[in-house]
């Protein structure tokens, strides 16, 4: 056990021993008193062979004490400031991905003579960055933390978007858009992790719902703003608006966003303690599996694909989500064909057709927040804290039915122009609703089905669907020219229809399929163990005779195998690893 040490040694130039709790920095408003940190009884002997294992200082209700450097204990308002910044970052990046699609006709006038595929690449190039970026920024956040990863990516993201305004040809514009996508993709990789770092699973429904809707709202909002601005001032002002939006995101993150990644924060705390005392302090992760940057990146490139091709659930659901994602981005080409060429609308007015997808996305989000999340919470509470992953699929089943209906409706009412414009726009409401229901439901399903492997599963999912989003839209014009508007739209409907049985099959037979998979079987056993341990802890907390528990005797129920011994407070932090911590799942998958 560590002994009590003087708080103000002479060799303390950084003031590490001072008992202050307020930093004059917007991104770190609260700091735990140093005396609480250093006097906590950590496990270990303080030597290289047996270092002190640094954990969060447990809550002490008798003293109204919380370790405020633990993101799970941030003030409620502070959590929501960080949540809105993270969600706004994802929304801004996805708006940037689609806004220039509304200015394609203006870009054609300035840079004539290229094929349709080259012009479509203005949008698709940005998504190429979504293929490359996650392979860099996911591991980067584990080494350097989420806050710094946002800062070092948003700055070049802003620069490359600003440089698009001065592009002299299509090649330059496409290259700049690709790099903007690479750096901007950090928002899609780490924003969800930032939210999950702060909210325990039973509290994060609304926050994750807001964040998860951003990838669908952004692409629908972008063409609306881009269409009117392009019509009034030209495509370069659209690029300038994207640059200003990027600058605002950068400023918000630099000034206000706190660091939330617990393993990084604990590692920094261990370094401070080592420097201050001369003893050896390490996190549980660094004791059991020291951080290896090369191995981390190598595994990031390997493990998602191992799971992708060994797990039929992962493979089929990823292909399904990828097709839906590609269909969403194909609309950026099909909408101008229908509303501008066929109906003669201006770019700005044609952009308003995307409002239908936006409205549908909000309806889908509202369904999840106000019906599905409460339903799931009631069920999981009634059944002792555990539900099989298939309990997430009713939402997907509804979306899987609604989505192709919207596609066929849109395909057969877009023309002739004698059909009132509101009819196809109403169809896009169903399209937007179906996309959100399927995506959010399947995200939750994959997370629940592959708890400790979920980060790798979602990483592979993101890369594959971005590939689909890059490639399929390139052929949209050719498909519409060959098949015509009605049958080209119907082709998308048939693709969605082909996968409609999938969620129903997994709803009835998914449990049996998962028990045949080692990875899914381990995750299912872990989920039940976590639920059992949480019930035991709740019973202990309700007991008036229960003594405050130290970290030494508590084993974490978090799915992150990086942290195998953490205090009771952190047992609720399953979400931290479900979204962003690949290292632990990598080691398990390698076995």
TrEMBL record:
Keywords: Cell membrane, Membrane, Transmembrane, Transmembrane helix, Transport
SUPFAM superfamilies xrefs: MFS general substrate transporter
Locations listed in the record: Cell membrane
Chain intervals with Polar residues compositional bias: 548-568
Main subcellular location of this protein, as a coarse class: membrane
A cellular component annotation (GO) from this entry: plasma membrane
Transmembrane stretches, start-end: 80-105, 117-136, 148-167, 206-225, 237-258, 313-332, 352-371, 392-412, 418-442, 454-475, 487-509
Gene Ontology terms for molecular function: transmembrane transporter activity
PROSITE patterns: MFS
Domain Major facilitator superfamily (MFS) profile: 82-513
Region (Disordered) location: 541-591
Domain of life of the native organism: Eukaryota
Extent of the signal sequence: none
Protein's membrane topology: Multi-pass membrane protein
Family: Belongs to the major facilitator superfamily. DHA1 family. Polyamines/proton antiporter (TC 2.A.1.2.16) subfamily.
PANTHER family recorded: MAJOR FACILITATOR SUPERFAMILY, MAJOR FACILITATOR SUPERFAMILY (MFS) PROFILE DOMAIN-CONTAINING PROTEIN
Official protein name in the record: Major facilitator superfamily (MFS) profile domain-containing protein
């Amino acid at each position: 056990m560590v002994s009590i040490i003087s708080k103000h040694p002479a060799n303390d130039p950084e003031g590490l021993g001072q008992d202050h709790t307020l930093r004059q920095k917007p991104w770190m408003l609260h700091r735990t008193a140093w005396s609480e940190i250093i006097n906590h009884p950590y496990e270990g002997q303080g030597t290289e062979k047996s270092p002190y294992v640094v954990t969060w200082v447990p809550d002490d209700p008798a003293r109204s004490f919380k370790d405020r450097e633990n993101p799970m204990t941030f003030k409620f308002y502070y959590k929501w400031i960080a949540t809105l910044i993270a969600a706004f970052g994802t929304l801004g990046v996805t708006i940037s991905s689609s806004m220039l699609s509304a200015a394609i006709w203006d870009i054609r006038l300035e840079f004539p003579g290229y094929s349709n595929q080259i012009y479509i690449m203005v949008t698709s190039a940005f998504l190429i960055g979504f293929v490359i970026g996650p392979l860099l920024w996911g591991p980067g956040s584990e080494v350097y933390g989420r806050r710094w990863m946002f800062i070092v990516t948003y700055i070049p993201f802003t620069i490359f978007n600003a440089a698009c305004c001065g592009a002299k040809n299509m090649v330059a514009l496409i290259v700049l858009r690709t790099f903007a996508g690479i750096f901007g993709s950090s928002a899609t990789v780490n924003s969800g992790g930032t939210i999950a770092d702060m909210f325990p699973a039973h509290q994060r429904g609304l926050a994750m719902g807001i964040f998860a809707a951003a990838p669908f709202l952004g692409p629908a909002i972008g063409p609306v703003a881009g269409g009117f601005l392009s019509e009034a001032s030209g495509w370069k002002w659209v690029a300038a608006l994207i640059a200003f939006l990027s600058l605002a995101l950068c400023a918000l993150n630099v000034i206000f966003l706190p660091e939330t990644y617990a393993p990084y924060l604990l590692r920094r705390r261990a370094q401070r303690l080592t420097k201050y005392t001369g003893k050896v302090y390490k996190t549980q992760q660094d004791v059991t599996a020291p951080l290896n940057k090369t191995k981390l990146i190598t595994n990031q490139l390997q493990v998602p694909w191992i799971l992708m091709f060994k797990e039929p659930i992962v493979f089929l659901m990823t292909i399904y989500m990828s097709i839906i994602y590609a269909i969403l981005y194909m609309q950026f080409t099909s909408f101008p064909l229908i509303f501008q060429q066929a109906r003669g609308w201006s770019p700005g007015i044609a952009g308003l057709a995307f409002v239908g997808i936006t409205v549908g996305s909000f309806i889908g989000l509202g369904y999840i927040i106000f019906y599905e999340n409460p339903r799931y919470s009631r069920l999981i509470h009634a059944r002792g804290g555990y539900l099989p992953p298939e309990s997430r699929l009713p939402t997907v089943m509804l979306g899987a039915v609604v989505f192709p209906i919207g596609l066929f409706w849109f395909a057969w009412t877009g023309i002739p122009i004698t059909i009132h414009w509101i009819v196809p726009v109403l169809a896009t409401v169903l399209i937007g609703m179906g996309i959100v229901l399927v995506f959010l439901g399947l995200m939750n399903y994959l997370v629940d089905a592959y708890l400790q492997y979920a980060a790798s599963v979602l990483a592979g999912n993101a890369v594959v669907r971005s590939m689909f989003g890059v490639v399929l839209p390139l052929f949209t014009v050719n498909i519409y020219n060959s098949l015509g508007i009605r049958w080209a739209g119907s082709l998308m409907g048939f693709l969605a229809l082909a996968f409609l049985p999938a969620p129903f099959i997994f709803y009835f037979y998914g449990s049996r399929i998962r028990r045949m998979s080692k990875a899914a079987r381990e995750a299912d056993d872990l989920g039940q163990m976590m639920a059992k341990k949480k019930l035991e802890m709740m019973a202990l907390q309700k007991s008036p005779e229960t003594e405050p528990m130290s970290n030494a005797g508590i084993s974490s129920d978090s799915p992150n195998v990086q942290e195998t011994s953490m205090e009771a407070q952190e047992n609720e932090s399953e979400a931290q690893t479900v979204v962003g911590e690949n290292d632990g799942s990598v080691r398990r998958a390698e076995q």
